[in-house]
Amino acid sequence: MVAIVFVGVAVLFSFIPVGLWISALAAGVKIGIFTLVGMRFRRVPPSLIVNSLIKADKAGLNVTTNQLEAHYLAGGNVDRVVNALIAAERANIPLAFERAAAIDLAGRNVLEAVQMSVNPRVIETPVIAAMAKNGIEVRARARVTVRANIDRLVGGAGEETIIARVGEGIVTTVGSSESHKEVLENPDLISRTVLNKGLDAGTAFEILSIDIADVDVGRNIGAQLQTDQAEADKRIAQAKAEERRALAVAREQEMKAAVQEMRAKVVEAEAEVPKAMAQALREGKLGVMDYYQMQNILADTSMRDAIAKGGPVQGSGDSGKK
User: Fold this and answer.
1) Which HAMAP family is this protein grouped with (predicted)?
2) Any bridge partners for residue 215, and if so which?
3) Which residues pair with 245 in a beta bridge?
4) Which has fewest Cβ within 10 Å: 79, 181, 192, 258?
5) What is the three-state SS of the chain?
6) pLDDT tens, position by position, 260-286
């Protein structure tokens, strides 16, 4: 019986957080023992709620048990919200519990936001390249000092939007400059252009300053583009020239074929001459003496051609012997 009683008392005290209730009473926080038992049934850790209540009460905050339990059951971080409220109270930043809970449930780190409101953060952009009107590339890197705007944390854009907008401002400023020398001589042109655009609109931050950390001269993109264009024009001209050459070669081959065809016709016509002469001899239209006279004329013509070309005279030896 003693053992059973001892086990029963142990189970009772383990289920009923008497120690937490005594701690809350010692800290001046009024919370009922049945409220702690109810937390057990609602699957809310009593130690988390009691410790957060003690911290809030010592800091002078008016936070109730129901508010903390509701925030925990909604999936929020109770301890972080209480710490953020205490930090905001110490920094004299107006922040209600409902606002802090909404920021926490939205996925934002409310404690970090309060700390950033007190101690602004410096966001450094990556190296952003832009081209001036003279074709010279300018590479710039900026440092943006921002402070969290608690009223716009819910629904406001994050750091990525700030970096993107600053990059857009750098590209706009450099692209509108007549020469890259203007940007190198006056880097504050970028800062003024970016600040005048109101880049913090719709974001969870307030931009305090934009400082150009580094400005360098990059590639001569204009000259490179002209070189690429010239190379492309050269290739086009070479292609057209190759096309014309191919057409000329094809035309030459066609002319050679036409010459061979005409020569074949000449040979064919010459082959008809002996036939015509034989027909004329048979019909009596051409005499034998006429034929020999024509042969002598051909021989004389051949001799004259040979003499004109400086070659040996064909048939002169045979005619002499005859």
Assistant:
1) FloA
2) 140
3) none
4) 258
5) CHHHHHHHHHHHHHHCCHHHHHHHHHHCCCCCHHHHHHHHHCCCCHHHHHHHHHHHHHCCCCCCHHHHHHHHHCCCCHHHHHHHHHHHHHCCCCCCHHHHHHHHHCCCCHHHHHHHHHCCEEEECCCEEEECCCCEEEEEEEEEEEEECHHHCCCCECHHHHHHHHHHHHHHHHHCCCCHHHHHHCCHHHHHHHHHCCCCCCECEEEEEEEEEEEEEEEEHHHHHHHHHHHHHHHHHHHHHHHHHHHHHHHHHHHHHHHHHHHHHHHHHHHHHHHHHHHHHHHCCCCHHHHHHHHHHHHHHHHHHHHHHCCCCCCHHHHHHC
6) 889 888 888 878 878 887 887 777 777
The pLDDT tens digits of the residues spanning 119-170 come to 888 888 888 888 888 788 888 888 888 888 777 777 777 778 888 888 888 8
Which amino acid would we find at residue 197?
Answer: K
Q: Is this structure's pTM higher than 0.70?
A: no
Locate CATH 3.30.479.30 in the chain. Answer: 121-224
Give the C-alpha separation, 215 to 180, whole Å: 10
Closest to 21 in 3D by CA, of 11, 13, 31: 31
Token pair, residue 150, equals 């608690």
